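Render this sequence as a predicted structure.
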Amino acid sequence: VEALKLMLAKGAQVEWSPTEVKKEKKEGEAAAGGRGNPNVGKTPVMVALTGGRGASFAAGPGFDRLGPPPFREESNREPLEAVKALLAAGANPNAKAPDGATLMHQAVQARQVAIIRELAAKGAKFDAVNKDNLTPLQVAEKPEPPPPPGNNTDSRTYRPKRDSREDVIAAVREMMGLGPSDPTPQPPAAPPASNDKKDEKKTED
């Protein structure tokens, strides 16, 4: 967080996000593998929401790091403090990721009540919908899928600090002025998918 504040003081862009770099395949060169940059379209706040996890770790589906991530130096790596710094610097609290999820959707999925409250205080909307036409409250209330197979039941598996599903739902309902038994507000139906590309194809034919 200290490094983040220093970069902001030096004029770092709070809404910058990387774009996919298209590499032209040279003659005789095999196609590049991988799925591209996973951070494409993500703003600094979106990355900060789940930050402080240490170097990336991969050991196959369902397998996570055992024990806390090793860091070479002591420092503040609290996602809440990073989000506060970015919002104070002018980051958009209603920014949307390429998949249509807003910061509020992401904070709900990360189960970070303090960040949800911080976003709400800065004007984040509770009626925004993601690509599935779901509001943050609807995302919070969705039943969670079972964990994938692997070492998820190992007591040593590292788990970032997060709040319970019940606490997240209660906090979102409180901020929306809803009681525990009030019906969940439903957003308007999503507009039908555009047929522009199909129409263009027909015109060309």
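Summary. The CA atoms of residues 47 and 148 lie 23 Å apart. The first helix runs from residue 2 to 9.
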